[in-house]
Amino acid sequence: MNMSISVNLPSFTIGPDAYDDIKKYAGFAGEKVAIIGGETALEKALPRLKPAIQAAGLTITAIEWYGGEASYSNIDRLAALN
Questions:
Q1: Which tens digit of pLDDT belongs to each residue from 25-45?
Q2: What is the pLDDT of residue 8?
Q3: What are the phi and psi torsion angles at 70 (to 5°)?
Q4: The whole model's pTM is what?
Q5: For range 43-51, the mean pLDDT
Q6: What is the rounded CA–CA span in Å between residue 37 and residue 64?
Q7: DSSP E strand stretches across 1-82
Q8: What are phi and psi of 61, to 5 degrees?
Q9: Which of 17, 22, 43, 51 is the most exposed place for a label (fewest CB within 10 A)?
Q10: What residue spans of the chain are helical by DSSP H?
Q11: In angstroms, rounded to a whole number, what is the distance separating the alpha carbons of residues 13 and 45?
Q12: Exposed, middle or buried, 25 (CB in 10 Å: 0-12/13-18/19+)?
């Protein structure tokens, strides 16, 4: 059996003012936001990310650790959170 997999990676923004533009980059998909990341990324980013998301008028619906491994089972678990 011949099988292929397509993977689409999201775009990203970096820079000193990236948090100020969160509505521009995340708001196109709606008003609700789920934050998914590794332990260190969440620890470092959340103190600035959460206020920026709230200031943009977006609602945080979940903050989740990605699972420690880039696997289909973790993808399925995260996708089921909505």
A1: 777 778 888 899 999 999 999
A2: 66
A3: -80, 85
A4: 0.74
A5: 94
A6: 7
A7: 32-37, 59-65
A8: -100, -20
A9: 17
A10: 22-26, 39-55, 72-79
A11: 13
A12: middle
Identify the pLDDT of residue 13: 76
Q: Output the six-digit token pair for 46.
A: 């959340």
What distance in Å separates the CA atoms of residue 46 and residue 36, rounded to the nearest whole number? 11
pLDDT number for residue 40: 95
In angstroms, the CA 75 to CA 13 distance is: 22
Reduced to 3 states (helix: H, G, I; strand: E, B; else coil), residue 78 is helix
Name residue, tokens 């995260």.
Answer: 78
| CB 46, CB 35: distance < 8 Å | yes
Tell me how long the chain is. Answer: 82
Q: Give the number of other Cβ atoms within 10 Å of residue 42's Cβ.
A: 16
CB 20 within 8 A of CB 52: yes
Residue type, 27: G
Interacting residues of 54 by C-beta distance below 8 A, sequence separation 6+: 60
